[in-house]
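Duplicate of earlier report; Zinc-binding dehydrogenase input re-posted below.
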Amino acid sequence: MKAVVIEEFGPAEGLRVTEVPEPVPAAGQVLIETEAIGVGGVDAVIRRGTLNSYGFQPGFIPGSEVAGTVVAVGEGVDEGLRGRRVWAFAGMGGGYAERVAASDFLPIPDALSSEDAVAIGTSGPVAHFALEQAHFRPGETVLVRGAAGSIGVSAIQLAVRDGAKAVAVTTSSAERGERLKALGATQVLDRAGTGDDQYDVIIDLIAGEHLPGFFDKLNRNGRLVVVGIVGGMPPADFGMKLMQDFRRSLSFVTFSADTVSPEAMRTVREEQFRSKDFKAVVHEVLKLDEAALAHQKMDDGEVFGRIVLKP
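Output:
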């Protein structure tokens, strides 16, 4: 079968289309003929080599979430799932392929497209639990840093739905700002967060060298939650900024969906899949062969929402 592998870590052109053996579903798994493959920020971070301490090697197939039709089932899986359309989490990788074996899967409602399923499937629950990690409460103000990605657009919608007094965003252009306002944002800042306003909660999808400056944008007792590192690691001494502002009682925390139980993730995902008020944002649908182009668009900061690949 056809798949995309990381032939060389670094630039997007390090991705290559090749032929690999078709996976065989193990006990508890289904084999999915993919119809839509989500292109996520973590895929780009792995491809750049940022996470090579995890043991990633050339030949690795990126991609963590897919949607498609079940064509085979492993031992212990209901045979009735054959022919059903499902969303599935492939783990840290394996998704950029024509067929994917996975044990974490969920049937997709008829009203939800496969493209929308991979735009929501991971990003929606991650945004939900990131706000929970921040101990967000109705009436508080929220800033979403790097809001144009799929987690960011989800976080905006959820904060508004759950009673935020105001939701500010950082983004790269006025055009994007207007699109974010259409999703519920009330204030648009540039990437540096220029301005004197402060917030109760910051959901940070960027990290990077400028992270410490965003502690200045927290109210007293404010909480900053880092959900992604698409901008790279922060400075090694970034915690000194918190200590210098000791009397403001600021909190910094990281969040990974790995710390949430599969049952809790499934419950939230199922609710979001069926919600009529939660909007999936698909930037563009490209062919699987165009995975390198998809990654280049992410590197260039062009993506609003999520790019989806189709075999």
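The helical segments are 41-48, 114-120, 123-133, 150-161, 174-182, 239-244, 262-274, 291-299.

Merging into the original ticket.
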